[in-house]
DNA sequence: CTCTACTGTGGGAGCGCTCCCACGCCGCTT
DNA sequence: AAGCGGCGTGGGAGCGCTCCCACAGTAGAG
């Protein structure tokens, strides 16, 4: 009953051909969905495949053909520390869902050192994947350009700058900031501050822009003392909140560019005796578990993360099969989730 | 300057051999670290490789040899919903770290439907990976046994039952329960309840066993009314907490088998006017972000998740190279992280 | 009735490796 | 002095596929 070992004879295409009474070429054509096959042959091959339980050998395929049926999802460790972690899992979910339908494999690559980065660059240049998905938000990340030079299709999650030339899927971060501030001002807040992410990240600058637009739209005066830069971490959020409280004790609303920073801010506000939302309304971005479980539950701007993953995968698959002239540029809308903190 | 396209001539082993003035066999031996090579040849080959920027072709290797240099990490979607999500990211981190050193690829497979499950089973039987890492906590999961039958090395994260026959890396869930309850009783709590995970999961039963041991160790009477089963979700935690409060209004401590359930419990306790920790001390498991950010910050039992990932990968690599007679059975200790909820 | 233009087909030639056999060459024993 | 074992080596065979060329058969055009 037990299979005898690793080398156990899996049926080959040749055997399928023999059983179906056709040539190798025909079987190959059937498998790859070529139209140039008679119905009779197709049926015979289909049956032989079923009877033999034939599964094509990927390695042979990759060697003979020019593709590998695999794509890499690259997550630089720096990012994974910054973002709320569930973010990546949702991205992975979306990517994986889309890939499964295309029968492609997902290769996950975490890059946490320059050595690993180098190894991955080798990978890329060795054409060992058909394409790459890059979570790349730092403006100076060279990986996307490297991929382009090597002719490896690539799709980014997020942009590195306004003029991003590589295909990307992003969420509407400006809109997120704008609607967050709009929500705050809509509830009568007049002194709305913001805690930003690191400003070398385009995503952080976008959310800040959105904040400014929101302030202006409400007819409030712009005041740079209401802006404090942080780094997407809880501790950064604490520091920024202290700073803001120091500079503008009269603030009555805070837009934190991430839930995690909002959590830090909440701690400081509480220590300072400010009630949420009574004295200060607080809003974050991500709609993560943290937001739901915080006390009080945090109003937050939701990004369609899983959908971004899906779209990225779809865009990449398309670029692999037929590289269109225009790289994919998708910006997905965000959505306000109102809870008790505002 | 630009590389001309996808097919651009990457150097092959043959070219390296020519340049180094040796035969193909010798180059192959150098690359694979065979000792049967003279220093002179080794040096020449090394130089040729460097000059040409040679990177071996994986597909060719996989086809010729019997291995693929890739392993799969399988995450059933059911699990990913149940566990706190950061759990998987930490596992992935550990696995990835260990794999990078071995120059192995990590293939991530999310299984969310029976169709995808079937596809993965095909994968397995097609020997397309050298081994599998399975996150498998349900007692009836057939995947581990399938892998065994197919002769594909497998390592589980968690056990399906006490008599697990497949190699595994788990954390000391009994110890986790025991120390959690010990901590509670150590602080003078006498009526300690528990909210368990789904009892068809071994991990949930273990934590419950630990709870019982802790209660007994403290010389307290066992009382089944203090035990409420839930399902590792926040809502489940809420329900269970209501139940407990109903049955035993005099309880003064709660051990929730996950942080997320503890979060649910906290909400109910607060609604019932119980102060934490003054009236009821609360403790969870996972030491997740949720615990840190909860209000009050939640005391929790930490599992060394990333280390588990690392150990799994190491065990699998070992099993791949030389299948020892004894499957790996590792149980890692947990650690109490005390915060303000107790 | 021949000529062209398909469409469906079989099978050769590789893809770039690893495995392994066979061969020289060395230093050692008898 | 001839014989022996080993080491380092070269290169053939083959892994299972895809690509593509060549060929039969059929059908339509002249």
From TrEMBL, chains A, B:
Species annotation: Streptomyces gobitricini
Family annotation (InterPro entries): HTH_LacI, LacI/GalR-like_sensor, Lambda_DNA-bd_dom_sf, Peripla_BP_I
Q: Enumerate the SUPFAM superfamilies for this protein.
A: lambda repressor-like DNA-binding domains, Periplasmic binding protein-like I
What are the residue boundaries of the HTH lacI-type domain, all occurrences included?
11-65
* Keyword Transcription appears in the UniProt entry: yes
What would be one Pfam family of this protein?
Answer: LacI
Keywords, A to Z, come to: DNA-binding, Transcription, Transcription regulation
**UniProt-recorded Gene Ontology molecular function terms:** DNA binding
Q: Which Gene3D superfamilies match?
A: 3.40.50.2300, lambda repressor-like DNA-binding domains (1.10.260.40)
Recorded protein name is: LacI family DNA-binding transcriptional regulator
């Amino acid at each position: 009953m037990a299979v005898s070992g690793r080398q156990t004879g899996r049926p080959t295409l040749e055997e399928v051909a023999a059983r179906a009474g056709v040539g190798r070429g025909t079987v190959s054509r059937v498998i790859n969905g070529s139209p140039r096959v008679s119905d009779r042959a197709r049926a015979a091959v289909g049956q032989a495949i079923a009877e033999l339980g034939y599964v094509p050998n990927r390695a042979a395929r990759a060697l003979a053909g020019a593709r590998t049926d695999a794509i890499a999802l690259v997550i630089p460790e720096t990012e994974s520390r910054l973002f709320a972690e569930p973010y990546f899992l949702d991205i992975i979910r979306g990517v994986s869902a889309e890939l499964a339908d295309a029968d492609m494999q997902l290769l996950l690559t975490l890059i946490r050192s320059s050595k690993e980065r180098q190894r991955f660059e080798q990978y890329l240049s060795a054409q060992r994947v058909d394409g790459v998905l890059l979570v790349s938000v730092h403006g100076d990340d060279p990986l996307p350009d490297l991929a382009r030079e090597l002719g490896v299709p690539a799709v980014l999650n997020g942009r590195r700058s306004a003029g991003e030339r590589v295909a990307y899927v992003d969420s509407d971060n400006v809109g997120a900031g704008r609607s967050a501030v709009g929500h705050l001002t809509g509830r009568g807040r007049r002194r709305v501050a913001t805690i930003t992410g690191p400003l070398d990240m385009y995503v952080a600058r976008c959310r800040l822009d959105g904040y400014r637009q929101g302030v202006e739209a409400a007819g409030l005066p712009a005041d740079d003392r209401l802006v404090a830069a942080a780094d997407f971490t809880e501790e950064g959020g604490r520091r920024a909140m202290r700073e803001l409280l120091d500079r503008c004790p009269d603030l009555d609303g805070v837009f934190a560019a991430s839930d995690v920073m909002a959590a830090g801010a909440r701690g400081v506000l509480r220590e300072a005796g400010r009630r949420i939302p009574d004295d200060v309304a607080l809003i974050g971005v991500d709609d993560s578990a943290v937001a739901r479980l915080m006390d009080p539950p945090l109003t937050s701007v939701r990004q369609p993360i899983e959908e971004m993953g899906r779209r990225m995968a779809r865009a990449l698959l398309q670029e692999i099969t037929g590289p269109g002239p225009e790289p994919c540029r998708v910006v997905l809308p965000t959505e306000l989730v109102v809870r008790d903190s505002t």
